[in-house]
Please model this.
Amino acid sequence: MKVMGENIPTWVLTGAVVLAFCAGILNTTALMGITHISASHVTGNVSLFAVSMMAGDWLNFQLLLITIGSFWLGSVLSGAIIGSSELNIGRHYGYAMLLEVLLLSASLWMYLDEHHFVGQMLIAMACGLQNSMVATYHGTVIRTTHLTGITSDLGSAVGNWLVGRRVNIKRIILHSGLWWAFFIGGIVAVLLYMQVGYLSMLLPIMVILVAALFYNQMGKIYQQIERMTRLKLLQKRRKRRDAR
Model:
């Protein structure tokens, strides 16, 4: 195997895997709930939307329209808050995750109060927000709420390896981690939903809340380290100039 290197920091890998795990729980919970409609991806929902429209199933038609539109609206909110799909520690990911926590909490409240359409709208909006928070890191695609692109990328990597081309092992590790995290999140959601129903959403809500608070602290620490590094570089340059 010919390996092509690319530095993907541990904090990027860990954060993406944690978010994918949460998305796996949320999507499976939505599928097991009253609506039986995915909250975290659009492709299948668009196909079902077309089927419902042609079959005259107006209840599902409305629900799917709400779900697709809400996912899109969540992406709009992400763009407004963060401003770019390229991962950068200085952007407002902590605020975006806090908003996601609020949306998920409101969704859980609506589900428990049997306002299932509103609950579906809010959970889909939260997933759209999460999915659009980070799209790429130095050219590596990072999607945390669905597996279509990740599965394709992993298959492409295997194909390249089979014919002797170079593959990026770190990118494979990242995408494999996302794939398995989403899958394991689905398993956890099934086990939790069978016991507590929609309250299974409390786990991803708490995890994302902790991640948001930790990110805000991590951002401050990162900025301090960056300033110290720059200061040391300036001091070294001054010493070299003085030595001349």
Summary: Residues 110 and 118 are 6 Å apart (CA to CA). Residues 1-5 have pLDDT under 50 and may be disordered. The radius of gyration is 21 Å. The longest strand covers residues 2-3.
